[in-house]
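User: Run a structure prediction on this.
Assistant: Running it now.
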Amino acid sequence: MPPKIDMSREEAAEREIGVTRVSSGVKILLVAIFLLSLVAIPAIQSTRGFGVKWTGEEKESTPGLWSRLAAINHHLKTSALGIEKSLEEHSFLTKTFLPPVQTLAFRLFGLGNEKVYVAPDGWLHYRPDVDHVLESGRSPKFDAAKKALAQLHSDLQSRGIRLIVLPVPAKPVLESLPPDAKSRSYDQFLAELRRNGIEVLDPTSLLIERRRTTARPQYLKNDTHWTPEAMEAVAGSLAEKIGPASTPSSLKKDSPRSEEHTSELQSQFRISYAVFCLKK
């Protein structure tokens, strides 16, 4: 009976790996497959086009060697970025494998992608909207928007034009989060606009109250738009703020109609509209 050798799991694994032998033929085959996989995809894609037109023209009006080199470098960098973006959208691998993979992920596991969140109840949410609502701290975008709106208000006021800012509450605020889940920095931003003399009509409270009293959503389930009833409610509130003198008398109210089409959020999946119909 051979003596028992005590060794750890790591030592046993290292010992097994250390004596692994691969024949020369297998080595050559594996290297060949690896190199072929690197070359095959761009080779196939080259036969289908990269989606970017190469003009081959460089303006030579820029004087100086370094300036011309910088211009050529900028052109090459821009072209490379264009090819990269085109490959992301038009690559044969993307067109072949992404739709079925996303279809399975959505149908079986309720998963979204880098642009869309899928809530547990099946609602689709634009990812930047969710990230904005959940982020802590004040976004630099608020300061940039405040400065731009202040300048716009000043320019319009000098021409006798009235400015009313109507911010659109993000879909998660109305449909997926508690009523008091609004960002504190959002309320501060609107308060700062009002202190600067800018009129603000925030429809968030109106839509939250409508959702509570009617028990109906204010956003479309698979889109980033309000329901027709929510739009009418906000439009009525805005008309009251503007005043009757500014209301056009020639507006004609059409009868409501129902249409089914691929929404903005659904189009981010690159899968068939029928998949969402089956998911209902």
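Residues 69 and 280 are 57 Å apart (CA to CA).
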